[in-house]
Amino acid sequence: MCLAVPGRVLEVAESDGLRSGKVQFGGIVRNVRLDFVPEAGAGDYVMVHVGFAISRVDEEEARRTYEILQTMGALTEELGPNEDAI
Amino acid sequence: MKYLDEYRDRAIARALAAEIASVVIHPWVLMEICGGQTHTIMRYGLDELLPRGIELVHGPGCPVCVTPLDTVDRAIALAKRPDVILVSYGDMLRVPGSHSDLLRAKAMGADVRVAYSPTEALKIARSNPERNVVFLAIGFETTAPANAMAAWEAKHEGLANFTMLVSHVLVPPAIRALLASPNNRIQGFIAPGHVCTIAGYREYEDLCREFKVPMVVGGFEPVDLLEAILMLVKRLEAGEAVVENQYARSVTYRGNLSAQRIVNEVFEVGDQKWRGIGEIARSGLQFRKEYIRYDANYVFNLDLISAEEPAECMSALVLQGLQKPTDCAAFGTRCTPESPLGAAMVSGEGACAAYYRYRRHKEFQ
Q1: pTM across the whole model
Q2: Do the chains contact at B35 and A72, CB–CB below 8 Å?
Q3: Which residue range forms the structural domain that includes residue B342?
């Protein structure tokens, strides 16, 4: 139930005080409510749960974490792959 | 897909598992609260990547599993009324009530429809003005803003034929109940990333201080969970109880204030029954009196329907991390996803369903 999927905002529309937009998930585009992410605009990534964006993905944080993780991954790559595990 | 694939990277996952093995000295029992995280752990076999001393126990963070039996019975009773269209998230359809489930009611002619979003339930209400549309609105903090928005919109549109049967639970009171239990074995928590996306993690700091248990707000992908486990193990080995945020790409300290605002407009905190666990004080959300007209319990006078839980299902112990699904005599035999004894075998987030689906049932074949 609490799953949320990241998608990229393509365009934003507002009507009657409600905020929504087209969001792309891989090859699929869906209408998503953007009421809870007033800061998100076209080009931003948002996490979407039951048709509502619940956060704008902080790209800075994502990059920082991922870079640290990648450094770790690079170290084991050198130790050789283990196809049985993840 | 961006922000998914990179967090499923095998090399990084293996490096994290190796790092965990290198820092761990003592055995530790960790709980992931959220059923979505349980499924990632089972699906990718993360528990098997960990050193022997680290035990993961699975928490009560499955909204379908903890929706009270009487709420399911009430939904079925409503669905059977010819004037009602019962709209539900798909996961709830197979959840056993006392005598039946929504899918069986549908097969017998009840108008039960599945919605992915509360906005779809509103649409059904708008296009069926002569019918009463009841939305079975369950969830944790993550889903509360979307469900609250549906009630808010119905009120502002003056939608007269729309009500909601609500079962909304809150995570921090459940953690408190687990930690305060004399049977508690949990030494560290992976806090639920999407719940905290909405609610922030201030409340977890209070729990951490009170019970001296470290907590890491974790994401849902394999790399997220392994990193969260590494962060927890480091704190546990150092004897430090603090709250950290692994899932900073989505979670901020104060959470999503716009979402909190709509939840507070529509709902207030109240005592709440959890299936398998019982009542936990101030652990749920109920309609404020300004929104009582959208409460199906009130409109259809459902309070008289109450239910006793069946004795054979031991999901209460599973949800509290006291037993593993495979400890249950009925697991994989008298209880399967096709014919479940309890909700934990049904939901896409139930621990029993995760064990059954991803391999543990093989041990029983």
Answers
A1: 0.93
A2: no
A3: 315-364
